[in-house]
Write a structure and sequence with these properties.
The protein has 495 residues and is of the alpha/beta class. It has helices at residues 44-63, 66-82, 84-95, 99-119, 158-169, 183-195, 210-219, 232-241, 265-277, 297-310, 329-345, 376-379, 395-402, 418-427, 462-468; strands at 9-11, 14-16, 23-28, 31-40, 127-129, 135-143, 146-150, 173-177, 203-205, 225-229, 246-250, 255-259, 287-293, 348-351, 366-369, 386-392, 407-408, 410-414, 432-435, 451-452, 455-456, 470-478. Helices cover 38% and strands 22% of the residues. α3 crosses α4. The N and C termini lie far apart (67 Å). The chain binds NADPH dihydro-nicotinamide-adenine-dinucleotide phosphate.
Length: 495
């Protein structure tokens, strides 16, 4: 076992240098001059090595009974729990997230490991009657083979864990490429799995640039499935280049919260603060649009602005911090650019909009009002602490506005009217709908994912996650001792 701060690639159960020997650094977005580690920069050859070792490990791992595979996951969950605080601090230092949210990131990894360990005792197929006599029909779940997992930086432990634990319990072997922004968190997660006793070669990690390492995984002929989470444009490229593989894509969002005139306004303000500014708006499920009934708009805006002004910007390690830094200078500049775009488009800036004068990639929590659905700030994913208010006259209009975007991930409505809540559940075009709760807060035993340009492929989490990482095999057993032909030998005269 290598030291916990090993900064190498993980191939065939060994911590190794990249074939090029090139390195890169990971920095702290709250103190950009602080280097957290120097990492081996993988390349195409390293991916090929990883695929070979994953291929060698496949037979044994796929034949290991699933409940036994689950024991490795349970042990990993235990190690994650024991190291939770240390791992959470790592998340905060590498991506900036406030420490209490970083603990949530690690907890989510623990939850999915435990959940998927339990799935190892189910992995249900089904049995069903045959249309013919003395014939038995059932389905089995089979592993797919080598799965390529490509992940973003915004949940640097949780998102890799969702994919890794599910792929493992289904009996697959893995080539994992984490984001180059968060290689330290990824390394620590892999070290937990190594310590838990995962056999060599079952999980391989190649850190390196997406267009080199990521694309080689996508195109590799022996990788059977790709599971990707990240930006819409990257996902579209992956879909185009993957060839005849299974591809699961979890992409961006432009999620909305509807606040009706009968809503509990304090609760709705809480929801917008958490949805819009939690994780500095850097969640695929972040709420960047608030669709407010015109009767309560003024009152709601006053309450919201008051709360935003009280949010504390600062280093995520400080327990009082509400809004931590963005991931990078590029992300900070993007927020400034979109603020300028919003002003030019005619939206009214109510609060925020500036880069504060402090070290780190911070941006003020920002709120625009008088927004409309044809503005870029209400259509495009900014991935920062910028929220737009759109005023509507009735329920029907609120749904129209909610659905006026290319994405369909998460959504929420605040209302005390059951009919309006049901209307929203049925008509909102999104993978997730919350009633009187914010747009964020996925639980691992439920399916997670979106529609439209947010998602293609099966959902992650719960039983649908198992669907993403397994193949269904259909089995017919004929014990009639004669040739029976389906559709042909069936006696239709009975009906
Ligand atoms: P990116 O798409 O930039 O990167 C995601 C991963 O893809 C990284 O590991 C990246 O590598 C890799 N990558 C980049 N280019 C390629 C390529 N040509 N071929 C293969 N892989 C490539 O997204 P971000 O990391 O910036 O993450 C933010 C995005 O993720 C947002 O749009 C957000 O909405 C979305 N997201 C969606 C979620 C969902 O469940 N729907 C959840 C969380 C985030 P590298 O960066 O190292 O070069």
């Amino acid at each position: 076992m290598s030291k916990i701060n090993s900064l190498q690639l993980y191939i065939g159960g060994e911590w190794v240098n990249s074939t090029s020997g090139e390195t890169f650094q990971s920095n702290n977005p709250a103190k950009p001059t602080q280097i957290l580690g120097v990492f081996q920069k993988g390349n195409k050859e390293d991916v090929d090595r990883a695929v070979e070792t994953a291929e060698r490990a496949f037979e044994k791992w796929s034949e290991t009974p699933a409940p036994k595979r689950g024991l490795v996951l349970l042990k990993t969950a235990q190690l994650l729990r024991e190291n939770k605080e240390k791992l959470a601090r790592g998340v905060t230092m590498e991506m900036g997230k406030v420490i209490r949210e970083a603990r949530g990131d690690v907890q989510e990894a623990i939850d999915i490991a435990e959940y998927m360990a339990g799935e190892g005792r189910r992995l249900f197929g089904f049995t069903t009657p045959s249309e013919l006599e003395k014939k038995f029909c059932m389905t089995l779940r089979m592993p797919i083979g080598i799965c390529g997992l490509i992940t973003p930086w915004n949940f640097p432990i949780a998102i890799p864990a969702w994919k890794i634990m599910t792929a493992l319990i289904c009996g697959n072997t893995i080539v994992f490429k984490p984001s180059s922004e968060t290689p330290l968190c990824a390394t620590r997660l892999v070290q937990m799995l190594e310590l838990a006793g995962l056999p060599k070669g079952v999980l391989n990690m190649v850190i390196g640039p997406g267009d080199d390492v990521g694309m080689r995984i996508v195109k590799h002929p022996r990788v059977r499935a790709i599971s990707f989470t990240g930006h819409k444009n990257t996902g579209a490229l992956i879909l185009q280049k993957a060839g005849l593989k299974r591809v699961g894509l979890e992409m961006g969002g432009k999620n909305g919260i509807i606040v009706m005139d009968d809503a509990d306004l304090n609760l709705a303000v809480d929801g917008v603060i958490w949805g819009g500014y939690g994780t500095t708006g850097q969640r695929c499920t972040a709420a960047s649009r608030v669709i407010v009934h015109k009767e309560i708009k003024e009152k709601f805006e006053i309450a919201l602005v008051d709360r935003i002004k009280k949010l504390k910007i600062g280093n995520g390690l400080n327990p009082d911090t509400d809004v931590a830094p963005l991931i990078s200078k590029a992300a900070q500049e993007k927020c400034a650019r979109y603020t300028a775009i919003g002003k030019r488009e005619g939206a009214r800036l109510l609060v925020g909009g500036k880069i504060p004068k402090m070290e780190g990639f911070y941006f003020e929590p920002t709120l625009f009002t008088k927004c409309s659905i044809d503005m870029r700030i209400t259509q495009e994913e900014i991935f920062g602490p910028i929220v737009s208010i759109i005023s509507v006259g009735d329920m029907e209009e609120s749904i129209e506005v909610m659905n006026s975007i290319e994405y369909g991930l998460s959504s929420a409505i605040y209302t005390r009217d059951i009919n309006r809540a049901l209307e929203a559940i049925m008509k909102i075009e999104a993978g997730i709908v919350y009633i009187n709760s914010s747009t964020i807060g996925a639980e691992v035993h439920l399916p997670f994912g979106g529609i439209k340009h947010t998602g293609i492929g099966a959902r992650e989490g719960g039983i649908e996650g198992i669907n993403e990482f397994s193949e269904t095999k259909t089995v017919y057993i004929d014990y009639s001792e004669k040739l029976q032909k389906a559709q042909i030998d069936h006696d239709f005269s009975l009906i």
